[in-house]
Structures are given as structure tokens and as C-alpha cells.
Structure of phosphoglucomutase (alpha-D-glucose-1,6-bisphosphate-dependent):
Amino acid sequence: MSHSVPVQTVATTPFEGQRPGTSGLRKKVKVFAQSHYLENFVQALFDSLDGFSGGTLVVGGDGRYHNRTAVQVILKMAAANGFGRVKVGRGGILSTPAVSCVIRKHKAFGGIVLSASHNPGGPDEDFGIKYNVSAGGPAPEKVTEAVYARTQTISGYRIVEAPDVDLDRLGETTLGDMVVEVIDPVADYAELMEQLFDMDAIRALFAGGFRLCFDAMHAVTGPYAREILEGRLGAAPGTVINGTPLEDFGGGHPDPNLVHAHDLVEVMEGADAPDMGAASDGDGDRNMILGRGIYVTPSDSLAILTANAHLAPGYARGVAGVARSMPTSRAADRVAEKLGIPAFETPTGWKFFGTLLDAGKVTLCGEESFGTGSDHVREKDGLWAVLLWLNVVAKRGESIADIVRGHWAEYGRTYYSRHDYEGIDSDGADRLMAHLRATVPGLVGQTVAGREVVLGDDFAYTDPVDGSTAAKQGIRIGFADGSRIVYRLSGTGTAGATLRVYIERYEPDAARHDLDPQEALADLIAAAGSVADIAGFTGREAPTVIT
Ligand code: G16
């Protein structure tokens, strides 16, 4: 039954700066809350898409401040623009991987995720919006660039005049001719996880006394982790901490690293530490894995999961290939070489994995920025990574520390660290990058940090599937011994610029696998600072965050 509701066309003028970054449009809440700001972007998005009339849109977010307001606007605009159905998570909640899962399972036209990921939330903090295509993954650059172009010429948007939809009651209602279906945000996702993992083996692991602490960081994964870990797998009540999504994430950064996941780090450093610690981020796509007495770098996690994925039923047939973003360490490449499977190196941004996954060229992908995922969806997936680790631990019957050390002994250890200089002046950051672009190619053949430089360039990528290209993706300095220094500016910040410096060194000798990474990399870290004159260009003597 359709109810006619008036469709309004509201006159508007363009806003500057609505260009999506590494992962959608991220701005302060105060920017998004200006009248017409979100509406302009959403109309520009709908104007850039073809053929959705009568189709299904999936909508959900990480529950941060402004989420509910934005969901109501999007529902009314989707109705006015001709969508046939919107599936929206109860309370406006859907994790990023769950959006991808729901789009794929229900063959939706696309989806909108409301999140600024690991950035803080609240009235003075960050908000974000990103669009995912029908394959379930982030829109490729040709789409985001078309949206941006449209934001610069927009003169009106369409919205229905109707009362707000009750987001807290499951089931269907209508908004004009469009059906709004409020869905359980966890159900489809949990069902997919059951198909991928050996749930009995993990259940037996927990029944045998294995203890996990999962820090949901007051963000979106709380309900997912409680249902799957405590509900379906029998982990002890209290396994999930900070499990209720809060609009301001309890005042913290919902970023699963050793700096921000301090509640978890405290538990893992305590006298009676559990066997495994894990955390996820604001929108549920990132993960951090800890064992008792050991931190697994995201780069190592990708390598170890690639070597062990066959232990999970969903990957029993093996891994077709593995992809990592350029700044991610090359640990996974060594596994791929041994398995005789291809390894791909892409620019930073999950969207670059989409074509490889769609073409079946890779099964697993990962990034140094705490992202790991597979072809089960088209986003990185925090809880999925935790479940795969649990599956591997259950099948191998070894501790996380033993699995990691055993991996290093077999493949060598890649010492790795990322140094972030957050909130630096944008001009200084641009000048630093220009300086590197001008000088780094000339380093080839010279000696830096006692090593011969064999590569000095600005990473450019040609997608092997669709031939699309991306330039200026990060300055690389490669050394003859396999060490690397990489510099890039973050594409996800909302204030000033963030310089990221990625440093790695390969150590084949197992007798030297017990160093502190900062010590193991000390000479390369010093060289990274002097080659780029970081102090001179940024005025900073030390990084703000080291991971
Ligand atoms: C996003 C992207 C990732 C990227 C990360 C950091 O993750 O999806 O591919 O690695 O940002 O990007 P940058 O170094 O440009 O800040 P998320 O979890 O923030 O959506």
C-alpha cells in the first residue's frame, strides 16, 4: 500500500570541500549539521547513480552522535528520489562489514554507512558518510569523483515531508511509495560468520577454559560480539567489555591500537591476563589482536592468517591470492611466495581491493592500519579477524605467542612500525611531501642508514583488473636488504594534516627475533626523520602516535 506524501524540492547552493577522502566524506559534526550540508552530499550521490529506481538501499551507522538525525534525512531523501526499499539497522546501527554483508545477501543496489570510523564522536567531534556499491564495497574513485563534481554544481535536493520513522521497532513501514524495513543489525552478519568458521571447535576452545577479552570500545561491535562470542560460542559473560555503543564512545578514540585501547591493554598486562585480547573500532571494520605477552602487528596478522586460513571451513579450499596496501609490511608476500599464490600491492584504501576480490584473484587482504578481511564481504572486518584467529588457535592448539613465534621462525620476522604526526600544519605537510618527491629519486644508488638505496619513487598503481590508475600514493625508499621507509599524508583526518611514516626491516635470523621494534628499527627511524626533515617542516620533534 502506498501513501502519498509531498515531495519537496529544496533550493540549495554548493558547499566547498565535499570531496570524499580515503574512506568517504569525514568532517566535524558542526560542519555536517549545517542546514543543507548532508542533504547536498546525499543528493549529489543519488544524482551520480544510475538505475536505482525501485531498488533497495541499505542504511546504517556506528551510532555516533548525529547518526539518528542523518538516518532520518537519508530515509526521506531516498523516498523522494525513488528508491523502493531501505533496509535500516535497528536504532540506525549497522557496522561497516554488516552493511557490506546485507547489501550482498539481499542484492541491494547499494548502501550508505554513517561513520567516521576510529575518529572520536560527539557534538564537537567527527561524523562521516560513505557509499558502498552493489558488490558491497566502498565506491571506487570514479564514483566518488563524480559525486564530488556534482556537489560543486548542485542547486536543489529532493526530500519528502513526513514524520520521522521509528528506528527502534523491527519491521516494515512506508514512507511515501518506499518501504522502510528496520532490520536486526546482527542477524545476517552472524549467519555469515557461522558459515565461515568451525564454530564447534571454537565452542570447545571456550568450553576448555580459553579466555578472551574483546574491547568493543563503546562502539558498534558490542552487540555483534556479545551475540556471536558470548551468545553463540559460549565465551564467558563479560568477555566483551565496553559493549554498549555510545554516541561519544565514552569520550575516547574508538581506535584499536595499543595507545587508544587502554582498557584492553590494562587487562592484558594484568596478573591474570586472558589468553587472547582483541579490539575493534568505531564502525567495526578494524581489529587488533593480542596474545598473552605479545602484540600481533596488523601486517603480521595478515601473513599469519594467510598461512593458516585453510584451517577454517570457509577457506578450506585455500587462498587464491593475497593483497596488501603498499605501506603494509611485506610479511604476507613471503607467505604467498611459499604457497605459490599471487601477492598484490595496492594503494591505501579498502576500495582498491574491490576489483581483485570481485575477480577472484585474492581471498584475503589486509592493511597496516588494523584492517584485515576476505572475500566474504567487500569491507575489512574486525570481528571476522578475531573469529579467524580463534579458529586458528582452536585448530592448532597453540597459544597466540607460539603461533606468532613459529611463524617468524619459518618465514623470518619483519620488524615494523608506523609513526604518525597528527594535526600538523597542512602547508608544512605539503612542503615536506614536495621536498621528498624532489629528492627521493636521487637517493637511489646512495647509502642511507648504512644501506644501499635501490628504490626511490612516489607509488603509482594500475589496477590489474580494470586498468584504472592512481598516482601519488606515497613516497617509497627501498633498501638492498629489503628494508623500507614510506611516507604519506593521511586521507582520513578532519583537522590539519597527518603525516604517516612507515618503517620496516626484514630479519631472517630467529636468534634476533626478540628485539623491541623501536630498537630494531632505530637507525631507519632516524634516517626517516632526517631524509624528510620532519622536525624542520612540521615543527615536531616526536610522533604523536606510534603503532
Ligand atoms: C580507512 C581506509 C583504509 C585506510 C585507513 C587509513 O580505514 O578504509 O583503507 O588504511 O582509512 O587511511 P589513512 O592512512 O589515509 O588515514 P577506516 O577504518 O578509517 O575506514
User: Anything to note?
Assistant: The mean pLDDT is 96. Residues 440 and 456 are 5 Å apart (CA to CA). Residues 67-81 form the longest helix (15 residues). The longest strand covers residues 413-424.
